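Consider this:
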Amino acid sequence: MATPIKIAVIGAGSAQFSLGLVKDICLTPSLAGSMVHFMDINAERLDMIGKLASRYSNELGQDLKIENTTDLYTSLTDADFVISTAAVKSHHHQRAMREVSAKHGYYYGGTNLGGFYQLRLMLDVAHAMEEVCPDAWLIQSGNPVYEGCTLMTRETSIKVCGLCHGHYGVYTIAEVLGLDMSNPEDLTWQAPGLNHNIWLTHFYYKGQDAYPLLDEWIQTQGEEYWRTHVAKRTHDIQMSRGTIHQYQMFGLMPIGDTPRRGGWWYHTDLQTKKHWFGEPWGGPDTELARPFFVENLEKRIAQMTEIANDPKASLVEAFGADKTREQQVPIIDGLVNDNEGQFQVNVPNRGALEGVPDNVVVEVPAIVNKKGIQPIHVGSLPPKILYEQILPEWLDMERELHAFKSGDRSMLLWNVLDSPQTSSYDQAVEVLDDLLQMPGHEEMAAHYTYSDKMGLLNERVGSQRARA
C-alpha cells in the first residue's frame, strides 16, 4: 500500500539530480501519489525541470504531482521531507576567486575563506523549516555537508541527514581489482570518518579480506596502471598513485573525495598533480579539470532544455527507466514505509565514531527504517588517521563555524596566513582584501570585520621596512 508524501527540493535547478529524484520516486511503488515541489530562484531552469519531471512521470504512467515555485516558504509548506542541493555561488564565481588569488601568487586557490554564503543559506532553510514544517527531515545533498550539517544540527531543532557520493569509490576499487560484482552483496565494506575524509576499515569479498588483493595489485599492476590509465572523468582518482600513496602513508585506503584533500605536497602545481592523480587533468581540482567539468554540466543542461522543449521526445528513451544509485529516495522509503536498508549517512556522532565529539557530524553507516536513521557504532579509526586526518579537520571545522558565527575577520586572515602557499604577511593581507572586495562578496565583507583594537592587522610589513 502506497504512502503519499510531499518532498520539497531546494535548488531544483540542479537538473540532472532533480530528474533522477523523480525517476527514483516513480520507480518506488510504495511512494505512489506523492508530490515533489521544486524550488529555485532561477525561474527558467525551474520551468525546464518541471516540464521534464511531469512528462517523465506521465510516460511511466505514475501518479506523481509536480509543482514549481521560486518561494522557499511555499515549497516547505506541508513538506514531509526537504532535499537541499542549492548552491549560492556559481562555478564561474569560484573561478573568478581563483584568478584573484593567482594574482597574488597562489596556485589554484591556495586560500580558504570558508563557506559563508552556503552556511548562511543552510541556516536560512533550517530556520524556515522550524517555522513551516518542524517535523520534516532535511536531507542535505549539497556541499559543504560536513560543516553545514554540523552547524544546522547545533543551531536548530531540525532533523538533518547529509548525503554524499564519495563512498561509491569502494566499487571502483573492486572493479579495478577485477572482482566479479554481478552480486553487489559479495562485497562487504565499511568506510567511516568525516565527509570527504572517510577510510576503508573493512574490505571483504565473498567473506575474505580483500586488502591482500589490493596490496598484490599495487605490487604487480600499479605502475603499469598509473603509466597507461587515462581518466574519462575528472573525479577518476580512486586508484591513482596519489591515493595509493595516502594508503601507504596513513594505513587505510582513502575513499571517494578523500584523496583530493591529502596534503599540500600533492597540489603544488599542475605537473605535481598529474604525477599523483594522472592524465589528462591531474585530478578534479586543476585549471584543466574544472573548466571541462563545468562545460559538461552546461552541455547536459542544454540537452535537457532541448528535450524539455521538444514535445515529441521520449524522456524514458532519453533518460532510461532504471533507478539511480542515489540514497535519498530509498532512505525516505525506509523512514515512511519501513522498507529497511543500510546507508552511508552524515549525522551527529553521538558515540558512533569513537574519538570524535558527539555534536560533530560524522559519516558512518546507518540502519534506516520506521524508527529513524540509526547510526551503527563503528569503533575508532587507527590513531595515526585520527591524529593526522580526523582531529585536524575537526578543529578546522570548529574554527570556520566560530568565524562564521562571530564575524571575526582576523580568523579569515589566520586561515590565509596558515596556507602553505603563503610566503609573507603582506601577501596574506593583500589577497584577503582583494577577495573580500570582489563583486558578489559585499555581504561577506560586511559580515567579517576587525574590531577597533585590531588596527595593526591591516599593516604591511614591507611598507614599515621602507619607512625605517
In short: The two ends are 82 Å apart (CA to CA). The chain has three domains: 6-162+298-318, 166-287, 404-467.
